[in-house]
Amino acid sequence: PNIQQGRQRCIYGEVSPTEAGGGSDSPAPKPAASPPSVPRPKDDFQEELVIRPLHSGDIYTSFQFRTLWETDFTRENKVSHYRLFPKSLGQVISKFSVRELHISFTQGYWRTMQWGQPYLPSPPGAELWVWFQDSLTDVDGTWKELTNVLSGIFCASLNFIDSTNTVQPSASFKPLGIGNVTDHQIVCTENLTPWKKLLPCGSKAGLAVLLKSEKLFHSSFHSQAVHIRPVCKDDQCKTTSWELRQTLNVVFDLHNSGQGKNEWSLFKMFSRTLTEACPVASSSKIYIDITDNSQGEQFELSPATPLLSQAVVLGDRRTFSVYDLTQQITFGTMRSLNLLIRGKSSDMLRPLLHAERYVAGYGLQTGEIHTLMYNNHPYRSFPVLLLDSVPWYLRLYIHTLTVTSKGKDNKPSYIHYQPSKDRVRPHLLEMLVQLPPNSVTEVTLQFERALLKWTEYTPDPNHGFYVGSSVISSLVPSIVAMDTNNSRERPLFSSFFPSKEESSYFVRVYTEPLLVNLPTPDFSMPYNVICLTCTVVAVGYGSLYNLLTRSFQIEEPSPGLAKRIANIIRKMRGVPPL
Amino acid sequence: CVGINLRYRFHVSLLCKLVSCFGDRAGQFFSSGHTNNWAVLVCTSRFWFNYRHVANTLSVYRSVKRLGIPDSHIVLMLADDMACNHRNPKPATVFSHKNMELNVYGDDVEVDYRGYEVTVENFLRILTGRLPPSTPRSKRLLSDDRSNILIYLTGHGGNGFLKFQDSEEISNVELADAFEQMWQKRRYNELLFIIDTCQGASMYERFYSPNLMALASSQVGEDSLSHQPDLAIGVHLMDRYTFYLLEFLEDIHPASKTNMNDLFKVCPKSQCVSTPGHRTDLFLRDPGSVLITDFFGSVRKVELTMETINLTDPIDAESGELQKEMHTYADQLPVSEIIHQKPKQKDWHPPDGFILGLWTLILLVFFQTYGVKHLKHIF
């Protein structure tokens, strides 16, 4: 079938569980010579929810939905039968020769110091990273088309992504690709609706039933993402299958959603309870992090569950209570599951790496960007890779770049800088810095603000212009040995970043986006200027012109009526008038 | 009418009744002349205090969706986001009445053009169909000559213009010309234009294409007023005309027979303070015979067939000769590789001595041509 650009509308939902179930369970025998056999379904869907009570009384919930499909999108005859994998994304992958795609929409900023590290980091706003296949020649054109198609699928303004805010980092993101680091976006229900419709069960069964927008957006942090990549099917890794992960991370605030009470339940968080697992899911589980609660002294969990699981995640061994939704017994006699968590979690470990960024200076001409990176490990130092993508209208002075740790100069071992071109591409700065133990590293950079052309200003220019978050990638030493066997069955939340060595794990931290004011002209000026100029011209020049060129003539007053008639008669007679 | 597998939600009862029992009803059914419905709903105002314009547009969106037009046939343009605005005390909701009973934002909303994308240029491009080739389908108005289109505009306006996002304007002449382009390219069968702004009647004064019907919330020289403020949210929730229009539409269901004459009576001067106006002289049919659902609802022509179709089995992918090379996960932060990476030289710069050498050459040629005797005056 011909692949249409973007789907008919912002959503896609052609495959329904009943259709799919009928197709694969009982195939009709083919009239050809091949023997009839039940084809092994080559796609698999798993869903899971992780709940982690945080130290401050807030609660962090993370949904992950993973669809694995063994197929080859780059084949000659295009894939036509989609079962669990959404067709809109499959067509995007094959049409644009995509090898990996990561798109996330986030509202709010992740507070690392209060909440710890997230399972999947994401910057505020929208972020899109794409890796293309080697066979693709026209990357720029394909990138533009791809952003337009994705903006149609997700109802987002991704079409503002063009060469002026796209970067090709040389080292930060592996494998190499092009990306757009955070565009300021407002995330709302219109982004959630198409995201939900990509799930095999939609929002009708399984964990997705809990995704109600009124509760989800009334939170401190909300992030939804789609990650598509090829993964190893088994240990030998000879064949790959495509993995689609849809993740949704929410942090509910103690005072906004929790009404100040340290008591959380599924109904309080999502205004829904669970009644069944998604019928096409091979596994559907809920994990509650009870690591600090082995004896039940910090918080209590009801209904109780005997299932326990341990996993190494984010460098730490954590214990989880597991609820398996595929077992009927989980739902009890009421046929519905409403988890209750009463009490607070204890002190959490200080996160080893976190970062801050702010703009210093005064006035509308110059400024300084300060990025602070904190290494909280008592005796180990580790390298971090800092990626900064600054729009062209902040002209950076790279000769003023300073990196200091503990008051002394810290020379980065690798710097890659690509200067910006006005209205063509942004600045790209990548640095590999070694952070000494228990220290703060400060990176400062001075810039000058540019004056834009008056058509380039947004309709609300006095709000300011956004500068995307910096990305800090690092291999942080881990307390516990990480699991390097990447194909073993593990809970989804611990298997996103593959580990190569046991002593450290990969972490990515995003800083705050910056809001800078550019010198903004007074947009009512053109009207004022036109009025003033026309007045001056009309009054000043007009008067002068009249004075110089007007000539005066003597005119007789008009005669009375009788005289006029007499003049007419005289004219007719040919006699001169009176 | 059983066994039809429908993808879009619409009400079958009206069509089945008419198709199965031929009579004078069939005559009316086929006289409307359209086969599909589209809607273009635009809110042109930005900033939190214009909450009511977004609520206006979302109410019409809600009614139109409820009466059957699917999201793929609605182009919804909202210039600012009120539901997830940080000033909204109830996120992900937009209310139309201060008793907060009707959340017009809902749970299943798809906004096609949001924020800075709502511009005069984009609006005119949607109407005339002149969009760049990479525009996704959800952002296009793919109407044909048998489409009935509903266009709803709201925002701040004046005598002969409508303001877009506080930075640009569309004039009534431009709008009339856009509709004429649509007529010449046969992009509509009939078009209903509703506008809820101050002096809204000025916007339809200049129309000259056939089959256009227009309604406005106020005459030239009058202001359209807002309905009621809500103290918790802090702004006015809706405009009067659209508030009474929504009330009127809530009584309409897909099989109702209410016609346009009832729509003209919505919001008389006693309720609206301004005088709503309408224009029907360009419309060929009598407004009394035009149903509300001709524009606000959706029509689907269904063909019943008794033939059976044999579906072929899905093509089973043969594994075939896949290359058996080992794949590995890429190292996320290969420090040694990065340090030893050679920086890529993108642009070619000439060597430094080149410019100096060039100028020396130029000077030497000059002195050679004009004589060496000038050289001693320099040195």
Automatic annotation (TrEMBL), chain A:
Pro residues: compositionally biased ranges: 28-39
An annotated GO BP: attachment of GPI anchor to protein
Any one GO cellular component localisation term in the record: GPI-anchor transamidase complex
Location of the region described as Disordered in the Swiss-Prot/TrEMBL record: 1-43
Pfam families named among the record's database cross-references: Gpi16
InterPro entries registered for this protein in UniProt: PIG-T
PANTHER family the UniProt entry points to: GPI TRANSAMIDASE COMPONENT PIG-T (PTHR12959:SF11), GPI TRANSAMIDASE COMPONENT PIG-T-RELATED (PTHR12959)
Name of the protein this chain belongs to: Phosphatidylinositol glycan anchor biosynthesis, class T
Species this protein is from: Echeneis naucrates (Live sharksucker)
From TrEMBL, chain B:
Active site, UniProt feature: H156, C198
Transcription regulation found in the keyword field: no
One Gene Ontology CC term in the entry: GPI-anchor transamidase complex
InterPro entries named among the record's database cross-references: GPI_transamidase, Peptidase_C13
GO biological process, one term: attachment of GPI anchor to protein
Pfam families the UniProt entry points to: Peptidase_C13
Family: Belongs to the peptidase C13 family.
Subunit structure: Heteropentamer. Part of the GPI-anchor transamidase complex, consisting of PIGK, PIGT, PIGS, PIGU and GAA1. Interacts with GPAA1. Interacts with PIGT; this interaction, via a disulfide link, stabilizes the expression of GAA1 and PIGK and links them to PIGS.
Protein name: GPI-anchor transamidase
Protein's organism: Echeneis naucrates
Gene transcribed to yield this protein: pigk
